[in-house]
Write a structure and sequence with these properties.
- This protein is an alpha/beta fold.
- The chain contains 22 helices and 17 strands.
Amino acid sequence: MKKLRFRTRLIIAFSSILAFMLVLGLFALYELNTIDKHLQRMYNQPLVVSNAVRDIEANTELISHKLDHFIMAEDSLEAAVHLKTINTSDKLINNSFKIISNKFLGETTSIDSLHNAYKNYSVLVDDIIKLKKKEDIVGAYSLYQKRGKIKVDDIYEKARVLTDFAQNKADEIYQNSIEETKQNIVLFCVVMAIFILASISIAITVSKSISKPIWHFIKELKLLYKKEETVQSVLLNENEERLLASSIEELKTAYFKLNTFNSQLSEKVKERTHELHKSKDFLHNIINNLADPVFVKDEKSRLIIVNNAFCNIFGVSQEEVLGKTFTEGLSKDEFNRINNIDEKVLENGEEHIKQDSLTTSQGDSRTVLTKIIRYVDESNKRFLVGVLTDITELKNQRVQLKKAKEKAEHSEKLKTAFLANMSHEIRTPMNAILGFTSLLDDDVVDESKKKKFIELIQEAGKRLLAIISDVVDISKIEAKQLSINLDTCNLNEIIDSLYFQFSIQNKTKDVSIEIHKSLDDNDCFVKTDRNRLVQILSNLIENALKFTKQGSVTFGYGIDKDKIKFYVKDTGIGISEKDKKIIFNRFSQVDNEYTKAGTGTGLGLSIAKGLVELLGGNIWVENTLTEGSTFIFTVPFVSDNQKETYVSIVKEDMIKNNTEEKTILVAEDELTNFIYIREVLKVFNIKIIRAENGQEAVDLFKENKDINLILMDIKMPILNGYEATLEIRKTSTTVPIIAITAYAMAEDEALAMKAGCNEYISKPVSKGLLYNVIKKYLHLDF
């Protein structure tokens, strides 16, 4: 040992001790592993079997209990709940049998006996359920009383055999474990004693080998301080102990140098500390001025740094949260969730990113993205650094974008279906018009059929016009270019007129039309847009008649405080709750046998809704499926006692030929339209002058002072109807000018009146309406 250096001696000593400790640790680990195996064996075999048997007993009792309630259940919903519980318990019992089969250490005959007992009980339960479903409650209950308890007791008895065996097996394993543990403890103590004695022996030996040179070193040090000259020559030929003694002077010199260096280092440390404080303050200011909440936790999940944004969002101060986990007051589940996240990030170093919802101190609900990472400093201390990013607006934008996308896709599908339907709707009347028009040229067709063909052409034309009007109206409504013209109108006259109109159109004898009016004829004058009101009611009445095959259609109005409540009620097929949500949407139609067989663009109710809202009201539907629907809408009730005079439509056979001296200027660029007007007015023997554009109309009026009436088309070349009317009004303010145009909007009528027209008629113009205009402005007596 003396021949070895100090370093070698120390290495040998500590290596020996570490080797002993390593062997001792491995031996202890082996014993712990043995104990763990015993415990696992005890749990995985007898205890697991015992628990599984108890589960079978408990679920069997639950099935018996729920079977009793199932038999006595008064309605199908309650019976379904109990039956579901029975089926769930049955699945749990089967799972328990699988566990027992895998873990049971005894004979399988005991398991088979219990399993067969439960199978017999399951057959009995199925028989009782079948009797209950056949509503044989007496039979089901009798079978339950007679055999149910016997089967359950049989299961309990066979289950007890498995439980007793498992318990006995658990006791046996436990006793064996205790004996083995005692033996292992004795062995462990013996080995530990041997290792301790060996370590003490090595320590004493090494201590002696090191202490002797140290004593020599002290002696030499004394000689050095006495400055004996013989020391130097002696040290040159001595071993390492003497060499250590000779280096004492160098150590003294080095000590003084080290002391000087420490002083300089202290100054540098002070400077560096000051810089670090400045850097810390700078970093602290940066963190505090961040918009997102930032926090730092130590290894025990205690907050050690939080910025101002963190305090603001939670409504706390830094003093209130620093040094705390910030989980105080949370529920146990929430505490465990946060604690598990912190531990996982600290242990694994995996970045944690999760979206959470929180309520701010102001009570606002916000959605934040929480990001937590692990930071390890130079001293190997671990910290949690977290940032909360408010993504509420981003999430809302995503939701809105998703809704907008879904809405756009749905709208695109509806538009595609609408275009296909519109193509069909337009082609059908056009086919009738073109087809029957071609038949009119056939000489083989007699006059009676030709008359019938003309009627069919007129019907197809009206239908085509209605389709075009619907498209124009919905386009105006969507573009918010449809204006409302409020004027005095007679509610009772509107109801009577619609009743007369639809009574003629109604060709179904099994459907009657009824009306209801709440105001007297003297008090029924209100301010509203008559044309739009008639349009709304007409759409609703047409729908009611289309979907009512038997019964009645009733429409009318009532007064509800400051509102007029109109309704259209039918006894038709009704509307389902699902369809009620879409019937007012554009291009939407209820899918049933009537809509498949019928016609329509799917715009009527959407137009009605848009017009009602423009009038300042609401529209909704109340119905019972298969028993009819009631469409209700409201408009503001603005009473107006100024009564109007309405010109009735006259019949052709009432006209008297007393118009020889009258002249009418017809401004119409389309030849077919002019021919139609000319043929209608032939019965009056009126002199007719045609202008093919607006400028020509102005020139002809100036040249013919005897013109008594002007029928003015709006859309014409050179000058349109508005411009031509303005020019004519510069010359004459008395001649009646009637605007006749395909423009069918109320605002177009307002423009015509503003230009100077006396009246406005939209195409196509019926004979009766044209006769009324002639009577009114030429003062004829029919």
